Structure prediction request, 194 residues.
Amino acid sequence: NSTPVALCTLFFSAIVTPVMTYGQLEGLVNKWSLDLEDQEKYFLHHATQVNAWDRTLIENGEKITTLHGEVEKVKLDHKRLEQELDFILSQQKELEDLLTPLEEFVKDQSESTYLEHEDEEPRKTIENLNTFESPADTTDPLQQICKILNAHMDSLQWINENSGMLQRKVEEVTQVFEDHRRMELERSIRIAFD
Prediction:
């Protein structure tokens, strides 16, 4: 018959607690240190990439803000140009309304002469109106036509100047957008291959 003390001794002698030597402990610590260094390098590599992406996002945000401002300026210029065109159309309509009675009068006076010189007559009439100087009589149809033609020419000149500027702005904004898109594509390709 086994006594409880004998059973305990037998049980404890069957459980052997492994004893770790200093060399084994040092080997484990070295292995863990190397693993930690690898993880640190991995983390630093990704942290550097994230910082680069963050800088790129900030730069692109600033570019988008600038681009948005340029687009808003172009929209305002476009709106002004449309207003000027509307003004010119109204002036042209008024001019046509004033020219119609004059054309009928000229036609009634000398229909044959008018038809022979049809190509030269409007040009000469406009040249004469531009050099026409008389007291400002607002009821005189020629004075009204001259005034409308001058406003029409000023508006056309303004449109000509501003349409060139507007076209240049659109080209600049388009170029900035294309450059930005190309840089993003190149950056995406580089990141994909890193």
